[in-house]
Give the backbone structure.
Amino acid sequence: MILAVILAIGLILADHRDPRLGALRSTLAVLVYPLQLLADFPIRYARQTQDRMADEDQLRNQNAELRRDNLILSARSQQLVALEAENMRLRDLLGSSFKLGERVLIAEILAVDLADYRQQVLINKGTNSGVFVGQPVLDANAVMGQVIHTNAFSSTVLLITDADHALPVQVNRNGLRGIAAGSGAGRELDLLHIPKNADIRVGDLLVTSGLGGRFPPGYPVGLVSAVGQVADNPFTTVKAQPSARLDRSREVLLVWTLGPQQRQDTLSRSDAAFGTPPGTGKSAARQGTRHE
Amino acid sequence: MSEAVRRGTWAVWSSLLIALFLTILPMPAWMDDFRPPWVVLTLIFWSLALPERVGVFSAFAAGLTLDVTTGALLGHHALGFSVVAYLAVELHQRVRTFPLWQQTLFVWLLLLVERLLYLWVLGAAGQPTPSLIYWVPTFLGAALWPWVFVVLRDLARRAGAL
């Protein structure tokens, strides 16, 4: 008993302080992966059945809706190409090396219940798909968290609301920088060390600042939900509500940040894939020049 | 003898696997805080029924598996499980003669010990202290004990382990 207790406490300490136990964990995790898949099965099956039962009307409506969304989004992205090219060119002029490009991979959250009182989710992509520890994870709206454990087939994602997670952010309105830490209890973020006289209001959008080097800059994180002065706190107490749908998303995006060269490659490849005539981006850039 | 041991082992591990499965099975969010501690209950049963075969180290292994499955710190569940299994094995001769309601009280105490150790590690790792709902699963586990006891005893008899 003594031996087991000492061993357990030793493991806890080692795992808490030092990530080198990852190999042991990922080996064991591969062994329990079938069990996790099995637990996910009822939900997956229910979802598939639901899809199959959908009648023609529903599908037609959904299709129309998606088509409309697609039209709006592609209209917006037309502009985006031009703006992005202009932005890159201006940054070139300034001599700053700024990386805009990212590669993403869609992963699915497994409906598995993880440890009590921690905010983690399990996703179905692992090192076989190139996932690495520390990789940012997004959903359709905003930043969700980052990968903390990986094995060959699955990875564990620590959500931004966990008490162990902190994320460098800035206020989109005025560029005020801060750290958004998870509160652990509930779905809230605390902004740490905001001075009393800082210009921050309820409703401000927080975006990643990219200063930690882990998250790409410019992704939305959440909205400021409460700003207040508490007597015993030398700083302003600021609470934020994450924009990501942390408890409802089914699909998440894994992000790789690319250098400028790799970015050119993926851009030309995606142009080919979407059937856009090559040179669209360039002519847009030229147009941008004329506007100047 | 070796035949009985083999069959008994099969029953022990399959019941532990089922308990593990029930622990990670997704449930509606409002029921999440009230999930009974299936694995601990199963472990307590086997350490009372077969103390010479299921004890501290089986508990440690089960706890470690649960840690990996749920993404907790390695050893987080294993610590509490080992202590609970030790207490159960130490006291099995006395507890076996108890009437069922006294056994239930004993099981409730063991569940409390497990939760307390879990809370201690949670606090030591810098997590915020959970609300009082944290203790509800011990009551649920104790309330479920008579049923778990009957079902597992049946399984053990069929497997020829008892």
